[in-house]
């Protein structure tokens, strides 16, 4: 094992082959007991998180949704979307056992042998809606991220039954179903804040026309302070509905500052954030905020985001309802498939993708 690890670490190509091409992921390195971070994972100084860039005297809002009929809940959600782009929601109605079950499912998938996980890699997967991989876009990135992932696009339950990995497909489908009600409630509230009274079929295609569930795995990392799990980015979704475990490591950028704030794990809570698509539709009223993840030095972390998106064939831009008071549009109309393509063709680079949609 030690000799094998030394051989892998002896040059850059061997590390890339082992982690990316052979499908071992960073979990493979971590499981072999790697003691120091390979050079490909060392972030430039300006990308590292330090005590001087993290503030501890502020936090993203925590919203109690016990009573959805209370107008204060809607107010808090809309204010959080405007001022933070992120919030945590508690008493949302998704039972704790459902949350625990999907975290367990994630651990189960990543515990599979590399040969089994590799069946779902970009090169081997028989469906483009199923992808196992590592980092974000390894071939395009200067520095790699300390994260492995399984990404599943939901087209239909039948398609999922055919192509999703058997070790997690039923659980993932069940989880998507159990989250649907709260996702719709949050979107209804957010639309209310933009003067959109009803979510008709056309709006539904714009807001939740496409769904993706990801399983992220951040194995214990030898030098977390030098690396990132997921680099600085904003999501391209309308909203993201994220479950994290109890390890911590998600940091959110405070609006109009260079300060980063930790999102503390709260048992039973879900983290909701606004993505670029909704920032564009709201003409900047709601904010899609940069965030990143730092892996842990002693524990394996999992997270399970559900990304809600416009249909790829949707054309997105500031909504009529937002502009009808004479407000000037900040963004042009753009085909969402084109927006997605730009995002997935490069490494994470903060909020750069949204710039291409500006007038
Ligand atoms: C943050 O907000 C998000 C995030 C997410 C998802 C987060 C994830 O981390 S999921 C994993 C993401 N990584 C990938 O999917 C890897 C994609 N890139 C690559 O594989 C390569 O490294 C590449 C060199 C960057 C591109 O390779 P290339 O051979 O040139 O092209 P293909 O990979 O064959 O792509 C063909 C085609 O599909 C488009 N495309 C690629 N990946 C995706 C994708 N994951 N989703 C949608 N479309 C994708 C690609 O642009 C090409 O388009 P064509 O029209 O030219 O065929 C989710 C949601 C959020 O809000
Ligand atoms: O793991 C997390 O907490 C967040 C992951 C994330 O930002 C993403 O997958 O887009
Ligand atoms: Fe994200």
TrEMBL record:
Its cofactor is L-ascorbate. It catalyses: (E)-feruloyl-CoA + 2-oxoglutarate + O2 = (E)-6-hydroxyferuloyl-CoA + succinate + CO2. It comes from the Eukaryota. The keyword Iron applies. Pathway: Phenylpropanoid metabolism. Keywords: Dioxygenase, Iron, Metal-binding, Oxidoreductase, Vitamin C. Residues 209-310 form the Fe2OG dioxygenase domain. InterPro entries: DIOX_N, IPNS-like_FE2OG_OXY, IPNS-like_sf, Oxoglu/Fe-dep_dioxygenase_dom, Plant_2OG-oxidoreductases. GO terms for biological process: coumarin biosynthetic process; response to molecule of fungal origin. Its EC number is 1.14.11.61. One of its GO terms (molecular function) is metal ion binding. Belongs to the iron/ascorbate-dependent oxidoreductase family. This is feruloyl-CoA 6-hydroxylase. The gene is F6'H1_1.
């Amino acid at each position: 094992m030690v000799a094998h690890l030394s051989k892998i670490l002896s040059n850059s190509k061997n590390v890339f082959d082992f982690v990316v091409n052979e499908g071992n992921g960073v979990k493979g390195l971590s499981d072999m007991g790697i003691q120091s971070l390979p050079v490909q994972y060392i972030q430039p100084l300006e990308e590292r998180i330090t005590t001087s860039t993290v503030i501890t005297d502020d936090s993203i809002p925590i919203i109690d949704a016990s009573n959805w009929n209370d107008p204060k809940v809607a107010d808090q959600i809309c204010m959080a979307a405007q001022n933070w782009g992120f919030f945590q929601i508690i008493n949302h109605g998704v039972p704790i056992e459902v949350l625990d079950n999907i975290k367990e499912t994630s651990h189960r998938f990543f515990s599979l042998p590399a040969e089994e996980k590799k069946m779902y890699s970009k090169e081997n997967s028989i469906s483009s809606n199923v992808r196992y991989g590592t980092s974000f876009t390894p071939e395009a990135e200067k520095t790699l991220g300390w994260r492995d992932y399984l990404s599943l696009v939901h087209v239909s339950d039948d398609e999922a039954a055919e192509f999703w990995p058997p070790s997690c497909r039923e659980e993932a489908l069940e989880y998507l179903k159990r989250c649907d009600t709260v996702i719709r409630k949050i979107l209804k509230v957010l639309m209310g804040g933009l003067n959109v009274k009803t979510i008709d079929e056309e709006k539904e295609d714009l807001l939740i026309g496409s769904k993706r569930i990801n399983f992220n795995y951040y194995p214990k990392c030898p030098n977390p302070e030098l690396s990132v799990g997921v680099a600085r980015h904003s999501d391209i979704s309308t909203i993201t509905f994220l479950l994290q475990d109890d390890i911590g490591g998600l940091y959110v950028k405070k609006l109009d500052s260079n300060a980063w704030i930790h999102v503390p794990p709260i048992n039973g809570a879900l983290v909701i954030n606004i993505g670029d698509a909704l920032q564009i539709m709201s003409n900047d009223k709601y904010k899609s905020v940069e965030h990143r993840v730092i892996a842990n030095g002693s524990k394996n972390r999992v997270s399970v985001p559900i990304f809600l998106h416009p249909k790829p064939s949707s054309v997105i831009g500031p909504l009529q309802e937002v502009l009808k008071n004479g407000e000037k549009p900040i963004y042009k109309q753009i085909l969402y498939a084109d927006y997605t393509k730009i995002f997935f063709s490069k490494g994470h680079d903060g909020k750069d993708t949204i710039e291409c949609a500006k007038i």
